[in-house]
Design goal:
- The protein is mainly beta and 243 residues long.
- It has one domain: Methylamine Dehydrogenase, Chain H (7 Propeller), CATH 2.130.10.10.
- It has 1 helix and 21 strands.
- A hairpin with a 4-residue loop joins strand 2 and strand 3.
């Protein structure tokens, strides 16, 4: 089990509940996100120190040069071969980084009124999916329950090499998309959104998007409870390797 402990990445044996190896050190402020590559060999971490670091889990070492990230990171994804990191920012942009030279390759701007909530990379590394939603206006109470769920989420598909949009935007019927995953055969994209309901609780809607037609089918809607100290706006979703 991997846990962000302030500026360190710690590893625990879930059976003994003890640290199993030396923590990874290098960030100078809170770590906000950690994500494994699909083969489980590398970790990408994003921190409030405005950097991204790539770690080799086997040798407990970091890629020498951290990647600078000028604005707050809202989400992060790493390719299976560890060569590309994709980030979504609270400032409404999707950025693609080359992990080998530490340079930004692409930036797709969604607009300053948008906030990126999720990014994911296709299994073949050719497509990027980003989900964004309107930010609450400055005049509204951004801490209120309703402001978090304002507007519709938009899912966009991008060419990972050129940064060009692919297909039309996919419009979700409300709420915030928190998780996405491509099916292994690249035929469909799965999304999980958090929706507000009248009782001030939250529910999760899971949709399957046909990438040929852009049309969704709803797998189900589930009420979200609070567990392990997580807020109801935090959901997790994963797709098995065989789809």
């Amino acid at each position: 089990m991997t846990v962000a402990c302030y500026s360190r990445i710690c590893f625990y044996d879930w059976r003994t509940r003890q640290e199993s190896t030396t923590p990874l050190r290098g960030h100078t402020d809170h770590i906000s996100f950690i994500v494994y590559s699909t083969e489980g060999v590398h970790i990408a971490s994003a921190s409030h120190d405005l950097t991204i670091r790539i770690w080799d889990v086997g040798s407990n070492t970091a890629v020498p040069q951290p990647l600078p990230h000028p604005s707050g990171i809202a989400c992060i994804a790493l390719t299976s071969n560890n060569d590309i990191v994709v980030t979504g920012s609270r400032g409404g942009s999707v950025q693609v980084w080359d992990t080998q030279n530490g340079q930004q390759k692409l930036q797709m701007q969604l607009g300053i009124e948008s906030r990126v909530s999720c990014v994911v990379i296709s299994p073949n590394g050719r497509l990027i999916a980003s989900a964004s939603h309107p930010r609450a206006s400055e005049s509204s109470n951004s801490s209120s329950w309703s402001s978090y769920f304002l507007g519709h989420s938009m899912i966009r598909l991008w060419n990972a090499q050129m940064g060009d949009p692919v297909h039309s935007m996919l419009e979700c019927s409300g709420g915030v998309v928190r998780e996405m995953a491509f099916l292994p055969d690249m035929s469909q994209l799965v999304s999980a959104s958090v929706l507000a309901i009248a009782t001030r609780k939250a529910c999760t809607a899971v949709n399957m998007w046909n990438l040929a037609t852009g049309l969704p089918s709803t797998l189900g809607t589930f009420e979200v409870g609070t567990a392990f100290g997580l807020q109801s706006s935090h959901i997790l979703m994963s797709v098995s390797p065989d789809g």
